[in-house]
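hey so i finally got around to running the thing on that chain from the lab meeting. sorry it took forever, my laptop kept dying and i had to restart like 3 times. anyway pasting the input first so we r on the same page abt which one it is
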Amino acid sequence: LKGGKILIIGIDMGGTNIDGVALREGQIIRQVKRPVDRSENFNSIWSCIKELFQGADKEEIRRIQLSTTVSTNAIVENRISKVGVMLQRGPGLKWQFENLGEHVADVTGSVDHRGIPVSREGADEFAKIKEDFLKNSVEAVAVVGKFSTRNPDFEKRAAEYLRDDFKEITMGHTVSGRLNFPRRVRTSYLNAAVHSTFKTFAENIKEALKLEEIEAPVYILKADGGTIDLEGAIAKPVETILSGPAASLMGMIALLKETKTDRCLLDIGGTTTDLFFLVDGVPVFEPSGIEIGGHKTLVRAIYSTSVGLGGDSYVRIEEGKLKIGPERKGHAVAFGGKHLTPTDALVYLGAMEAEHKSESAEALESVAKEIQMPPEEFAELIIDKFCKAIRETVENTLKKINESPVYTIRELLADRTIKPQSVGVIGGPAKALSKYLEKELNMPVEYPLNHEIANAIGAALARPTVEVNLIADTDREILSIPETGVYERINKYYELEDAKERALSEVRLAGEAMGLSADVSGAEIVEASSFNMVKGYRADKNIRVKAQNKPGLLTKREEER
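ok and heres what got predicted. didnt touch it at all, straight out
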């Protein structure tokens, strides 16, 4: 691996495999693919890192970038912490929240839409709620007030009171500056719910790197294709939901031929298949925030959807009918597993090579015999059903997207209908399935070189992003940007446009310090709000702006710096 140029490491930890690549000047120097032992994640991570860095000069490693499904899988599989939710709803519409568990407590008091306190909670309310949470073995707490983004005092006081008794306290104003109360409640709940799971994953990463004496900075992919440093991800793990699909998209954009047309992109994994769409070559975006596990959140994300079909989906006959997935019971028989999968059908049809080909054929022939069907015809039926399910998912998703305005990562396309002209596919079965998908989707299907490790390549080549949060109060005449250490005085005439310009400038400066493109187009406003605080005859402003450098792939210059 030695060569005098810096190394960028990309690691993708999926539900089935952990993949890793070492890149030097955009070229793959080493690649690793290992099965994930979900009962012992540390060994899976450490084995991958140990093999990936073997022979490497540790000083050459510029950074390590990870994508992971640990937060997503924890939510989907309901392997989350028991969460208590403390809400200060205030007067007005009484929002009803489902799927927040059994421990939702209301606190009296309120703050108005300007951030001015109207009334406080009762003296003993916090104590009673804490007692109830502890009695019911609550592990983490989400504290959310309706207008906490304009005055977080209630959330801060509650968090300080509860902090020593629970593993995690998530305050709603820290997850997003946007005003949507229901989405902020759900986002805060999920952040608290996955905190312990993600922290364990992060500690495993730290321990594995420590054992290998590697001190390079670690970044995690976010759902919008940007990155967050490991400590930031531990503090706000909800940002890592759909990290895996983000890496998929980045990998496909990096590896597939560039196109200016509409396109459907598929990542076929062992357990699921993820779908994405490009409009004129630009990814479709989810502007309001992703929905996962029945929760609508404020997490910005590339638009994706997932279907429970993968190369290792469990194939069986139920009541005389063929069933595929969504359950996965392990690897294909062809690769040492015990249960029939679509991968075994591909091996039987000669589309893939495998170590245990004869055992795989026996398993397929045994199931085919149950329904008195010739084995080859049965194998074709499995693949036909698999591809048909993907086509139906593509069609249904397109219908849903096209029923409302289309957003891309660049702009809103109000009167645009997405009409894919081609399909790009990655994942282990991509090459073997391409001709079957082409027939079913009736479009050209392309799979790139290194399609089986595209996620790790996408993780490695994702541009590191830096985020700044600017808060300006013209009443107190104070401006702060905690991420860059800016705390200074402003005058009473400071405006939202001034704040936006300053936030973009700070992002560009921070990006330039990281060796990233610092041009004007490289930064974007993520959130911006300004509201008046009327006192007597004068109206002061509370201004909040969040900005970051735009997610995307590293340029050649950025790779070399």
